[in-house]
Amino acid sequence: MRPLLLGVCSALFFAITFVLNRRMELSGGSWAWSSSLRYLFTLPFLLALVAGRRRLKPLLREMADRPWAWLLWGTVGFGLFYAPITFAAAYAPGWLTAGTWQITIISGSLLAPLFVTRMQGPQGTVAERGKIPLRGLGLSLIILAGVALLQMEHAQKLSVSQVLLGIVPVLIASFAYPLGNRKTMELCGGRLDVFQRILGMTLASMPFWLLVALFGWADSGLPSGSQMVQSLIIALSSGIVATVLFFRATDMVRHSMTGLAAVEATQSLEVLFALLGEMLILSAPAPSLVSWTGIAVIIMGMILHSLFSHSKPAKRPVKRSERESISSAQ
């Protein structure tokens, strides 16, 4: 239950991103600055946090061992996740972006065959390729049905261009985030904690963010003071608090594809938190009866996901000593 609670808390802090990104776009801020400033502001906080815990050198050694892999998956997990999210905010309201983002529930499950889990069996260590959790995928569809109901009334008022430019980038982000997250977990092999892994991905994605910042400067000049303040808030709430909570939750269930699917399903609550945030900050109208029905369906799907994730015991993970012996033999 604890991983799911951490996932719900992360959804609350992640939702701030959708509301403030939309607010910055409505005030004329550049999406390129909105995305790059978050990670530029996040970096010094993470450096101070990890260095203060005396865990910076182990991280740098890990990154030096496989620099290109870190560069690739850090850019995928953070760059191809957040840049499309902020780009979409220019063409769609925050509730639509947050709602579309829930496709990550299915995206994460569909990525399972790309990963191999090593387990200790009767005949020694066995490598088993992940399988798509069909039952969990069905429960995810219940959540998505609730999201669809939540958006139904509003989506009818949008133009085709808003739908395409506001949805397609988010679909790309929905696959990039869990893919980068899980691939860096593989790179770490349990040797790094959550803070080290987030800092590693942030450092690895810096070349990408510097290019995005250069594009923002060339396109619209320097960011305004208001955009910098709101980006700082996003960096702290989403880049630090929410990301740490979510990565901690996925680390706790990283040997169970069903458990990972359940934690990723908690992110469906972002659409509810984003809707409430837009009502309070951007004066968005209150949900209709259809929308409240969608909220009820989402909550039901979340409860079913929680029950299902505890219906089977997780398989015993390979111990660190066993993992190191396997690696040295390859």
From TrEMBL:
Domain of life: Bacteria
Membrane-spanning parts: 31-50, 70-92, 98-116, 136-152, 158-177, 198-217, 229-247, 259-283, 289-308
Keyword Lipid biosynthesis recorded: no
Signal peptide residue numbers: none
Keywords: Membrane, Transmembrane, Transmembrane helix
Pfam families in UniProt: EmrE
Name listed for the protein in its UniProt record: Multidrug resistance efflux transporter family protein
